[in-house]
Amino acid sequence: MTTGEARRPRGRPRDTTLESRVLEAATELLLEGGVAACTVEAVSKRSGVSKPTIYRRWPQRTALAIDAFAAHIAHQVPLAETADTAADLLGSVTALAGQYQGRDGRVFVELIAAAVLEPGTADLLNERFFAPRREALRALWKRGVDLGQLDPHVDADLMIDLLFGPTTFRMLLGRQIDAETALELARAALRGFTTHPTHDQ
Prior knowledge:
The protein is mainly α. It folds into two domains: 16-68, Homeodomain-like (Arc Repressor Mutant, subunit A, Orthogonal Bundle); 77-195, Tetracycline Repressor, domain 2 (Orthogonal Bundle), CATH 1.10.357. Helix content is 66%, strand content 0%. This is TetR family transcriptional regulator.
């Protein structure tokens, strides 16, 4: 081969759709039958991706379920960024509560249960599901502080817990929370920490 000749890659070209196919199949299985239905064998059969390939990317099937659910929720409940940060936070709370009314809520509770019962799953759930979402919410809170809309003396993580905690707590008790109730609870949490009233948001 001459120095000017491009080197050709060996073997078959990398299929860039593999991950999206696997996550799509895993999401479908989660919503159809919960975490128990999201096995590597079932995902392989539905996605057309071999089990060894899936295991190389996701050594634990629970990690695959978490990644699929995280991508699904990020797509279904994106964080808004408007001129009113408090309204964006309240909208995120109500949107998530609404999303958890159906099958997504069941999957979420099952993943929480797995985090309690299966060693290592809590770390996976925190790292792959909660941490990215909380990081985005921290950035949203900082934006509100920078705009002079939110109290700079309030810890962002504390407010995230206050805003989203009631939804999670009620779901763990088997009591779904509707969007209107979630909104009222979130308004109560934000009251006193914004530079303008939240009752009209």
